[in-house]
Amino acid sequence: MSGATGYNVYQGATKIQSVTGTSATVSSLAASTSYTFQVTATNSAGESAKSATVTGTTTASGSGGGSTLPKHAVTGYWQNFNNGATVQKISAVQAQYDIIAVAFASATTTPGAVTFSLDSAGLGGYTVDQFKADIAAKKAAGKKVIISIGGETGTVSVNDSTSATNFANSVYSLMTTYGFDGVDIDLENGLNATYMTQALRSLSTKAARR
Question: What is the pLDDT averaged over residues 145-158?
Fold first, then answer.
């Protein structure tokens, strides 16, 4: 329709949304289910004919790493260092833990950016390949494994747009490298809520495309 000012989105025969832009987000869909959609254009003269039908199928629940978390979840920190406590591999974490926070990623010389490297010597020769395989196994068992940022001595600073971008990019790189599901923020030495929010929103967008 020439001069369209809006669009109607139909799911099957039912109009579910009216939008003014050229994109729409449909929520509350069941997993592993096919849906059909059509679009019409609207302006002051009325509504156009429906577009050709498009079919989309939702993914299985929990696809891409672990299942949906239970309503009440148990989380705990797995430490990447030996401080006298019992040293254990990710594979040894008890099954009762729904979320395993790997502690900690640390700051780099680039403002906002973080890095993580496995303390193989302190953890009794735990290799990176074993570590990644253990994370994948926990996720296959329906658990979430996330990277924690900060800690008591953590000095990660996200206080402007550049450092927010560096934070999001570096955390996303760790997620793709090791298979982490997400990030835990444990900054005990101060936090700029405005720019950390910007960083986490950017990270969320990146993670949604994985």
Answer: 85
- Do 160 and 122 meet the contact criterion of CB atoms below 8 Å apart? no
Residue 65 has pLDDT above 50, yes or no: no
pTM over 0.90: no
Q: Which of 17, 29, 75, 188 is catalytic?
A: 188
The yes-or-no answer on residue 188 being catalytic is: yes
Q: Give strand ranges (E) for the chain.
A: 6-11, 14-19, 34-43, 46-47, 54-57, 75-79, 99-107, 114-115, 144-151, 182-187
With 60 as the cut, is the pLDDT of residue 61 above it? no
Asked whether the beta carbons of 33 and 24 are under 8 A apart, the reply is no
CB 102 within 8 A of CB 145: yes
3-state secondary structure of 199: helix
SS3 112: coil
**Closest listed residue to residue 91, CA positions, set 47, 117, 57, 123:** 123
Instruction: Give residue 67's pLDDT.
Output: 58
Nearest Cα neighbor of 20 from 47, 43, 36 is 43
